[in-house]
Amino acid sequence: MDVFNVIDQNGKKIRDRDIINYIQMRLESNASFVPSMRDSVGVMPSEEHTSIELSGTDRPGLLSEMCAVLADLHCNVVNAEIWTHNARAAAVVHVTDDSTGCAIKDLNRLTTIKELLCNVLRGNSELKAAKMTLATPGVTNRDRRLHQLMFADRDYEKVERAELQRIEDKGSRPHVTALDCSQKDYTVVTMRSKDRPKLLFDIICTLTDMQYVVFHGMVNTGRMEAYQEFYIRHVDGLPISSEAERERVVQCLEAAIERRASEGLELQLCTDDRVGLLSDITRIFRENSLCIKRAEISTKGGKAIDTFYVTDVTGNTVDPKIIDSVRRQIGQTILQVRRNSSPPPKAPQGTTMGYLFGNLFKARSFQNFKLIRSYS
After folding, report:
1. Do 83 and 154 have their domain in common?
2. Paired strand residues for 339
3. Same domain for 225 and 272?
4. Statement to judge: residues 247 and 273 lie in one domain
5. Span between the terminal Cα atoms of the chain, in Å
6. Is 206 in the same domain as 302?
7. Which domain-ending residue is among 230, 259, 288?
8. Residue 359: how many other CB atoms lie within 10 Å
9. In terms of C-beta density within 10 A (0-12 exposed, 13-18 middle, 19 or more buried), how is residue 239 classed?
10. DSSP one-letter string for 257-279
11. Fewer beta carbons within 10 angstroms: which end of the chain, N or C?
């Protein structure tokens, strides 16, 4: 039995019967299950748009260059999501032909798009191969697909450049442990980090794609911090059996937590959509030395609603004078500053954490108890 206590994005109890009924319908329907398509590569665009998946080395101005290429090729970006982590970048982009508003189906044109985007991703000194595929949209959840792309690109591996940037902020990183529970023949994975939306989703996606099964679990969130504890086994029925495997699980879960972390200043753009808009906006960002760490691009009803998380090129907080200059160029009412990401709580000292069954009744007394999952 799984028990979830959930709230809406504003932190309030869900009272809308339509939303409650929709959740119930989706959870009860087998149609809501979609298999992992980690290794799928297709050239079958939907009728509405063509789905492009990209991964490669991150650098300042990369998104701007990609958007410029797409604009030159008469591709209109209708929605997209871009993540960066550990000097790697991944994106899922949905585009249409700017003249017809439909998916691009011409194979020669698709080949040209692929070649030019790979050239942009490769850059001048690409040590790891850039990847770009044309995939069937709607088969796998977009967020999960981004996790799969970055996992396949091994973004969880330590990168010297990324580690140097993190020296001052090392204490705010997630704290993950993987310990043996020999009496129950499980591995106990515990995670403590700053709480945020979709944190549980990101962790479970990663465990599933790494071929682990959760048998028991507890999630508890406080005002700012989340604590999660899972009893896992590999799909072959065995717990983690080696130190190398244990270290890999810890690194991959740390990466899963960090990928979606809202690093930098949050900027929201809302304006009438037009062909080339995203190319123009990202060019202005690049010319003002803003580095896009994460982005969510969407269009609806003729409106573009985009969210960008930006830092300066060194990864530090952007000078307010630069933001003022950017807003004047784009439009004060079009581009709004939402917030600066607050630093996560410090990770706990030491590595000893209580197991699920030892803390089960204590956890029930917590005001913000979120989940108990247990199978006999």
Report:
1. yes
2. 266
3. no
4. no
5. 10
6. no
7. 259
8. 16
9. buried
10. HHHT---SEEEEEEEE--TTHHH
11. C
Domain count, the chain: 2
Structure tokens at 162: 């990324």
Residue with tokens 């009893």: 231
User: Per residue, what are the HEC states of 141-199?
Assistant: CHHHHHHHHHHHCCCCCCCHHHHHHCHHHHHHCCEEEEEEECCCCEEEEEEEEECCCCH
Highest mean pLDDT pick, 41-55, 109-123, 319-333: 319-333
Asked if residue 63 lies in contact with residue 268, where contact means CB atoms within 8 angstroms, the answer is no
pLDDT at 355: 53
Q: Tell me: the pLDDT tens digits for 119-157?
A: 888 876 554 556 667 665 555 788 999 999 999 999 999
Mean pLDDT of the chain: 82
pLDDT band, very low/low/confident/very high, at 82 (cuts 50, 70, 90) = very high
State whether 149 and 297 are in the same domain: yes
Q: State whether 274 and 249 are in the same domain.
A: no
pTM of this prediction?
0.80
Structural domain span for residue 4:
1-159+267-341
In this structure, of 26-35, 152-161, 283-292, the range with the lowest mean pLDDT score is 26-35
Are 295 and 152 within one domain? yes
Cα–Cα distances in angstroms (integers) from residue 81 to residues 16, 51, 77, 193, 221, in the given order: 28, 12, 11, 23, 27
Looking at the structure, do residues 153 and 280 belong to the same domain, yes or no?
A: yes
CATH of the domain at 247: 3.30.70.260
Show Cβ contacts of residue 233 under 8 Å, excluding neighbours closer than 6 positions: 185, 186, 187, 212, 213, 215, 239
Asked whether residue 63 is assigned to any structural domain, the reply reads yes
Last residue of a domain, one of 232, 259, 286: 259
d(CA 78, CA 75): 9
